[in-house]
Amino acid sequence: MTEERLIISRKTTNKFFLMIAIGVILLIVGIIAMAAGGGEHHAEGHGEAAATAHEAVSWTKRLLINLWLNNVYFTGIALAGVFFVAVQYVAYAGWSVLIKRVPEALGYYLPIGGVVMLLVFLFGSHDIFHWTHEGLYDVNSPEYDPIIAGKSGYLNTAFFLIRMIVFFALWILFFNWLRRNSINEDLHGGTTYYHKSIRISAMFLVVFGISSSVSAWDWVLSIDTHWFSTMFGWYVFASWFVSSLAAITLTVIILKQNGYLKMVNANHLHDLGKFVFAFSIFWTYVWFSQFMLIWYANIPEESIYFIDRLSGNAGNFKWIFFTNLLVNFAFPFLVLMTRDAKRQMIMLKIVTIAILFGHWLDFYLMMMPGTLRTSASIGFIEIGTALVFLGVFLLTFTKGLTKASLVPVNHPFLEESVHHHV
Questions:
Q1: What is the mean pLDDT of residues 254-275?
Q2: Quick one: pLDDT at residue 422?
């Protein structure tokens, strides 16, 4: 089987740099506008519930929260790409062999994600996480919060940083291990590297199962420190995974339209479409289960999370709350319901782009009500930060795609993938 090498033109690379440059310009405009306006006012009181005092939101706080939001989103897409590859190995899947280099390359963002995550937390933890304020744990302090103080064994800066560093180290280790075996298989053939990859994948899935949930609690759930949900780890995983599936599907289509992945056909697209369709429904199932149980029980300390997003914070987030459901569930569900839709590139392109935007909004909705509250909006800073991260992610991802043949030429199930039919 012949190799297929991706060549990224200078024009394409320049487009990514232009995207980053536009993002930086928008960021500067947004920062100047905020600085000139002297910040925006929002209510922030004791804990996360009802607010009592007014405090200006500085541009630095808004920028740091946006850096955190985008990095969590893109790190999750990269991590879920490695998860997808591992699942294919453990399941002895043959259909996905022709497209497996796409999710493999997503993992190249993980080292960047780790560095950004660490730096943003070190410089912006007080702006993002209420629990990092020391007065909350001192009984003699007017800021003392018995609920947050009770979580200090788990929610403390040192342990938080240890978990973050250990998780990224493990993720990067397993990604490089799988990638190295994949490339060695291209070079040397045989089934040795394939069987090694299955064992590595099995170990990674155990690590992923624990670390993805704990990182969701740390990086997203702990923003609303008083609130908790036993389903939250699943919820964030579902959002990450369906976004990653959308990114994989969109990339396969774009490569196919540009003359690459010649042996990928409508059957492979159909399976990718089924994954996107199924996990859009799975995300909705988790969303509804979490919402319904909390709404039905109507316990104040639980329902506050949804009140903040529906009627609280001056109604800032109400439109996002409903847009979230329309874009991430209703739209992909209705469009991808038929067999034909899952096999048409144009339909899959529209749906995957919508999902990628929709789940960015989903993470926005998870983070902003607990941080910026009534000052939250989607302005120059939000769009600028998202464009910078998207540009960096695309540069890293496409460079990863160029480092190996797009077709894993010596994979033992390659023939099965070539002749895959559904």
A1: 96
A2: 87
Cα distances (angstroms) measured from residue 113 to each of 33, 48, 70, 157, 172: 28, 28, 10, 19, 10
With beta carbons less than 8 A apart as the criterion, state whether 63 and 34 touch.
no
CA distance 55 to 155: 25
Task: Please name the residue that has the structure tokens 């010596």.
Answer: 410
| 329/352 Cα distance (integer angstroms) | 12
Outline where 258-408 has alpha helix (H): 266-297, 300-310, 318-325, 331-335, 339-342, 345-367, 380-402
CA 4 to chain centre: 29
Cα gap 321→136, rounded to integer Å:
31
The pLDDT of residue 52: 31
> Exposed, middle or buried, 77 (CB in 10 Å: 0-12/13-18/19+)?
buried
CA dihedral 80, 82, 88, 94 (to 10 degrees): 120
The one-character DSSP state at 316 is T
Phi/psi of residue 42, nearest 5 degrees: -145, 165
Q: Both tokens of residue 281?
A: 């429904």
Q: Could you give the CA distance from residue 420 to residue 413 in angstroms, rounded to a whole number?
A: 10
241 exposure class (CB count in 10 Å sphere: 0-12, 13-18, 19+): buried
What whole-number distance in Å separates Cα of residue 329 and Cα of residue 331?
A: 6
Provide the greatest CA pair distance for the chain. Answer: 72
Region of 373 (left: φ > 0; alpha: ψ -120 to 50; beta: rest) is left
Question: Quick check: 8 and 410 in contact, CB under 8 A?
Answer: no
DSSP-derived letter for residue 57 is E
Q: Which tokens sit at 61?
A: 């706080």
* pLDDT value of position 38: 61
- The reported pTM is 0.94
Q: Is the pLDDT of residue 391 over 70?
A: yes
